[in-house]
Automatic annotation (TrEMBL):
Cofactor: Mg(2+)
Bound cofactor: record note: Binds 1 Mg(2+) ion per monomer.
Location in the cell: Cytoplasm; Nucleus
Positions annotated to bind a ribonucleoside 5'-phosphate: 98, 119-121, 146-149, 189, 200
UniProt-recorded name of the protein: UMP-CMP kinase
Domain remark in the UniProt entry: Consists of three domains, a large central CORE domain and two small peripheral domains, NMPbind and LID, which undergo movements during catalysis. The LID domain closes over the site of phosphoryl transfer upon ATP binding. Assembling and dissambling the active center during each catalytic cycle provides an effective means to prevent ATP hydrolysis.
Subunit structure: Monomer.
GO molecular function annotation: ATP binding; nucleobase-containing compound kinase activity; phosphotransferase activity, phosphate group as acceptor
């Protein structure tokens, strides 16, 4: 459990200020494993779930949701809310890469140059970070936010982790809205400037959309209209997640 908490602390984005009780899911499902549930009830609940492990973790294969969408479509914002309301571990590929940069490693120096250019980090680096984070989280439900970015990423993940996602959530947002949000983000990100944003939008269209198309052809994509307020979008997200079996 401590590993799970430490992993979550290190790897999840800080909760957004909009993640309040008031904004939480109106369609909230009856969680089988809410965090605040007493341990005895948790154990009982686990007897009735197919995926939970002996410590609530992933001794069997976890439910994996890839969360995709253009830059600034609101992936991180919505994942924070989903993690809180539905008990998912939130692994953001971008945050993992930024964490590697912050560690001061040689790999980090390579990564920061790629991010400034809006390009895609080599698959073996990103997949290895995600694989380790999944292992550290020991979770039975995982959101992988902002990955895979291209077909090569997808193929590398499926080869190394040995799994396809159970679903792919696609936040569909118009470009002008994404640009407006990114320019207003104000979190000191090296890629939140108009030059990099334009490059990221091109990379999204040319490399990430084909991944979404691939998973669409496999019936895995759930498209969500990502316009409106974060809370309005979360209403649609809640409907989707409440309908899932995990
Ligand atoms: N529905 C919304 N309406 C207005 N602003 C939003 C909405 N959702 C998120 N934002 C804001 O837009 C910015 C980008 O959101 P967020 O970081 O969640 O996007 P993202 O898809 O994770 O972007 P990136 O791919 O760059 O990581 C943030 O400042 C966030 O607070
Ligand atoms: O799988 C990934 C995820 C991210 N990148 C690089 O990081 C930036 C920022 O990512 P966000 O998910 O938007 O935080 C992205 O533009 C890429 O340069 C990546 O290469 N691979
Ligand atoms: Mg993000």
């Amino acid at each position: 459990m401590w590993r799970r908490r430490l992993g979550a602390f290190l790897l999840r984005s800080p909760p957004s200020s909009s993640s309040t009780a008031a904004s939480s899911c109106q369609h909230r499902r009856h969680h089988l494993l809410p965090r605040e549930e007493p341990p005895a009830l948790n154990r009982l609940a686990r007897l009735f779930t197919s995926q939970a492990g002996s410590d609530g973790g992933n001794s069997q294969k976890p439910f994996i949701a890839f969360v995709l969408g253009g830059p600034g479509s609101g992936k991180g914002t919505q994942c924070t809310k989903i993690a809180l309301d539905f008990g998912f571990a939130h692994l953001s590929a971008g945050d993992l890469l930024r964490h590697e940069i912050a560690s001061g490693s040689e790999k980090g120096e390579l990564i920061v140059d790629i991010i400034k250019e809006g390009r895609i980090v080599p698959s073996e680096i990103t997949v290895e970070l995600i694989r380790k984070a999944m292992e550290a989280s020991n979770a039975n439900k995982v959101l992988i936010d902002g990955f895979p970015r291209c077909e090569e990423n997808r193929i590398a993940f499926e080869r190394i982790v040995g799994r396809e996602p159970d679903i792919v959530v696609f936040f569909d947002c118009p470009e002008d809205e994404m640009v407006k949000r990114l320019l207003g983000r104000n979190q000191g990100r090296v890629d939140d400037n108009i030059e990099t944003i334009k490059k990221r939008l091109k990379v999204f269209e040319s490399l990430n959309i084909p991944v979404i198309d691939y998973y669409s052809s496999r019936g895995k994509v759930r498209k969500i209209n990502a316009t409106g307020t974060a809370d309005e979008i979360f209403e649609a997200v809640c409907k989707l997640f409440s309908s899932l079996r995990f």
